[in-house]
Amino acid sequence: MSMHDAREASTLAAGTAVDHEHAAAASRAPRALSPGLTFATAGRVLRQIRNDPRTIALLVVLPCVLLGLIAWMFDGTPVLDQFGPILVGLFPMIIMFLVTSVTTLRERQSGTLERLMTMPLGKGDFVGGYALAFALLATVQALVVVAFAVWVCGMDVAGPVGLVVLVAVLDAILGSCLGLAASALARSEFQAVQLMPVVLFPQLITCGLLMPRDEMPAVLEAISRVLPLTYGVSALQDVAAGGGFADVRGAVAVIVGFILGAIVLGTLTLRRRTA
Amino acid sequence: MGNIDPVINVRSLRVDRGGTTVLHGLDLTVPDRQVVGLLGPSGSGKTTLMRALVGVQQITDGEVEVLGRAAGDPVLRRRVGYVTQSPSVYADLSVTENLRYFATILGAGPRDVARVTDAVDLARHARRRVGTLSGGERSRVSLAAALLGDPQLLVLDEPTVGLDPVLRRDLWDLFARLRDAGTSLLVSSHVMDEATRCDRLLLLRDGRLLADDTLPGLLERTGAHDVEHAFLRLVEEPAGPDGAAAVRSPRHLGGEAS
């Protein structure tokens, strides 16, 4: 074993001595966020996912299969043109929420998060890195799903398809960021999966998909206003009905606001010290 | 570089977890540039103490000072290397991918990655996915990550658990070389045999310090012939030496520590 190599031991010794002398220079306090470390973390998360092709396949194929089933079920009716754009925003959001909350929970349980919290990595770097990596995945996923809906299922969007893509990507990123924030509350993978109905179902019920929001009881309508999915669905409904960017930019701004809010919440709920 | 102050200074540290007190007002110091063994059975509070030292444990009361600063101080994150008990590395990345990521965080270069990979004898497996390695190999990857950037203090939670005797000896040789190179080490173990490889021992039981001594000092004080029996004598001190207890004594004081 190379450990017995005396030469190697002296290299170790030299390295340590040099480092201790330079310790003062290297001792500047780490910042909460530094672009280099955020990108390094995003790269590491993507590398982990790249090493797991089955997850990538599930992420991209699953929403297409679901959409394909609906297109088949309502074949010959205008349902796909009416609801397709909304589902294209909805499926990626739900899937990304689950994937992100489980992945970050795994990081907590494996002890790697504890190790990172003893290292000069900012909490913002950790959450930002995850958000960046999953935003990239979410973008790929949303692009594939929209392409599949339009070219394979024959979804006809009255408004610009590019807007459907934009809102679908933002919805998927929102799902990721909500998953990041929610995973801070979960203590087990079982709880993390249970958070999906807790966080997403109220949004699904009040977002205007089951019933137009202006027909809801006033209290439910008020609740729907403070939930992010409402704005995603409303934007996609507008595009499906032929609206342009001017019609949806307000909703898009709200979604972006929720994304940033979820990242900040995820960073604030991350604790270096735990019980 | 002459640092005479202790690297670790703990004053009446109390930690409560889930309604029970895990550490009952610990007082201890760890001297500079020594391999200090933290020995105790499962559930004695070793891991909790180590977590407090690296600043990830919420403490109820007391003071924890590491390298002259309050534990958890951001500056310490570059100077203290920590290895958790279960290997805290990414199973779905290769050995090198893992180490490169941690090296980036510490500002260490690719040469440092190669150095620590050699130090734990994993150069042969550098490209292998950590998830495909054996338990012992995984814990060495975890140890290698803590050696990155040459920390001044290493806090190692049961780094030799589950390793074969040859590897265990090699790791203790590595710890001794790191100490000779100027690093201070606090190494926990529930295997009392490993006491012989430590410069100094801290014996922990039920969140209280039984002894803080060198091995010869401990044996002389208790009149025991090994740490195992010294531990028993300290536990049963009021009752005096008990031959029956010595016969019953298990080789290892606990299975898996908390």
From TrEMBL, chain B:
SUPFAM superfamilies: P-loop containing nucleoside triphosphate hydrolases. InterPro entries: AAA+_ATPase (IPR003593), ABC_transporter-like_ATP-bd (IPR003439), ABC_transporter-like_CS (IPR017871), P-loop_NTPase (IPR027417). Keywords: ATP-binding, Nucleotide-binding. SMART domains: AAA (SM00382). Residues 8-231 form the ABC transporter domain. It holds the Pfam family ABC_tran. GO terms for molecular function: ATP binding. This is ABC transporter ATP-binding protein.
